[in-house]
Design a protein that fits this description.
Length: 392
Amino acid sequence: MTASAAEPPTGAPPRPRSRTVFAAAHVVADPHADTPPGGPAALDWDATLAFRHHLWAHGLGVAEAMDTAQRGMGLDWAGAAELIRRSAAEARAVGGRLACGAGTDQLPAIGATLADIRAAYEEQLAVAEDAGAQPVLMASRQLAALGAGPDTYRELYGHLLRQTSRPVILHWLGPMFDPALAGYWGSPDLDAATETLLAIVADNSRAVDGVKVSLLDAAREVGLRRRLKATGVARGASDEGGDGRGEGVRCYTGDDFHYPELIAGDEHGFSDALLGVFDPLAPLAAQAVRRLDAGDPAGFRAVLDPTVPLARHLFQAPTRYYKTGVVLLAWLAGHQSHFTMVGGLQSARSLAHLRRAHELATALGLFPDPDLAAARMRTLPAGCGAEETTTP
């Protein structure tokens, strides 16, 4: 793979035909803002929105205000709501596809009642829908903290789905991404949790476009997507999210370890994609899916399989700190002028980890200007108060 793989397209390509593909986008902090730890997030809006245009220019959809944007890890609800509104305006201007996260993070971490959680979800869903975006119904830390059983999940999600104006994406984010979500869907047993999720989908299939699964368990995802395909309403080209393939409810992979095989699929079907790793991998992800569109699954794997070592490195445990590597690569690629993150999360990974991310990304040709990337990496130890001893 050469550096040419990272060059931006000369014109906005069409959306992928064979798969629906969203890249969950990071946010760019304002490095000059006087914000204390735990204070309101301050964003560099120009750089943040420019990165969304970068993703749209490659033909990818943008999944906005998701965990990649540091929801619950520095980006508060007020900042997320403004991000949704601004990104939606930009999406309308260029015809870009946009899905936006709706959760309950305006509530305190503990002590919320079920009525509080319902109202919080309704508030956030209204912001996403009023902006014209497809909602992603995110997993709720506050709901998980209640320790409620499956019936509560089924009642709450049913209530929300009956009032949405367009089919939504449900989000199952595993505890490796957020430990506060352990036991989601009312049980720590994943088989029982799967049954509850499928019951919610079956009860409300016309309101559900798909389910994003972030469990880092490829076999479980394959089993779930086969059942989802048989559960939901068959969608055509005129339906929300439909493209004429006639599938039931979609499975959007959020598996940043096994995405090539899951997107490629098997004789029974495939996963669409809503991935944080497609933030740094956008040029290669778009190139790969275009090969699928052309009927070349081997070419798809040839482009995407070599990216897995980088993805596994970025998302290694503790997985929730993958955002640090994602923002590092955006800085090295020239998408932003600094390596500062909301909440100071740039310190969440070691120098050794960041150096390895640079090496792996360089080998993939991800940097439009490899010399700039290398020069920026050389400045990183000094910013951490360390002396450089090796050349990256």
